[in-house]
Amino acid sequence: MALDSFAGDALALIGNTPLVRLKGPSEATGCDILAKCEFMNPGGSVKDRAALAIIADAEARGLLKPGGTIVEGTAGNTGIGLALVGNARGYKTVIVMTDTQSREKQDTLRALGAELVLVPPTAYSNPAHYVHTSRRIAEETEGALWANQFDNTANRLAHIRTTAPEIWAQTGGKVDGFTCAAGTGGTIAGVGLGLKEFSEDVVIGLTDPHGAALYNFYAHGELKAEGNSVAEGIGQSRITGNLDGAPIDTQFRVSDEEGLEQVFALLEREGMCVGLSSGINVAGAIKLARELGPGKTVVTMLCDSGMRYLSSLFNPAWLEAKGLPVPEMLRR
Ligand code: PMP
């Protein structure tokens, strides 16, 4: 994969995100809890890395020709990344997502010029599922590439090649644990595999939202989901191609309430506005820090910006309708 070939153009803005120390979670645990600011990528999320890697890989394999079309099923952020990279490289994008994803992500995709196909949410086993719909559209479209982020391991390779070495360099090799939640699993598996190349001792923890099946898989060997979550972009029910062989040492379950508490604490105490998957990741990092004990360094991901969810997570009426607590700061 020739990521270097993008040096010098706008796509070189992807990655090399800052790593910040989170004061509140660090004080609460006696550890250094550090977070990669993936919301600072040009498309506003961690998924710019996967989008760039998938397109670079397809180009290198001759699967994408100038003027071609990239088709993908996504919770939105990968679509935004693909649309940005696609624009920069001269490809059209067709993005399939469920109509339950945030209004802001839908509007962003339209603004970037992607063709948006909205479908109702269904089980993965249903042929109408957004992932299968995107595969069919790709098959029926002349010169189209199906990005296939769930099973295309160019996704996790982006994290093996970029995110993990960045974390190693930014911590000076002082990293005891890493944790995040999985959507495709590209981040957790790629950063996990990449960090283990530097040191086998780094503990990789999976943080699983309610409604996902991975906690039970890694804890008990059984893919079984319990509860549900309003978090977008995370919550996996199968072992994707990217998760296959992920070096998971420990696992945690985090509720939406715990994640939201961190979202609002990050906003009030650290001055950072992030989405719910980031809040869930920070709650997971606190659990991993407690498991490892004081004095350790734990790294997690701030996957996207809270600005992407102004009409939902930061809207008291929406929170109330979902039965979620409205924080004091939104009542003021
Ligand atoms: N958080 C958000 C907001 C996302 O959009 C995604 C990607 N679906 C993730 C986390 C999870 O990343 P990955 O696909 O690498 O598991």
TrEMBL record:
Transmembrane segments: none
Stored Pfam families: PALP
Family annotation (SUPFAM superfamilies): Tryptophan synthase beta subunit-like PLP-dependent enzymes
Alphabetical UniProt keywords: Amino-acid biosynthesis, Pyridoxal phosphate, Transferase, Transit peptide
Keyword Endoplasmic reticulum: no
GO molecular function: transferase activity, transferring alkyl or aryl (other than methyl) groups
Domain Tryptophan synthase beta chain-like PALP: 13-304
Pathway(s) served: Amino-acid biosynthesis
Xref: Gene3D superfamilies: 3.40.50.1100
GO biological process, one term: cysteine biosynthetic process from serine
Cofactor dependency: pyridoxal 5'-phosphate
Name of the protein in question: Cysteine synthase A
Organism: Sphingomonas crocodyli
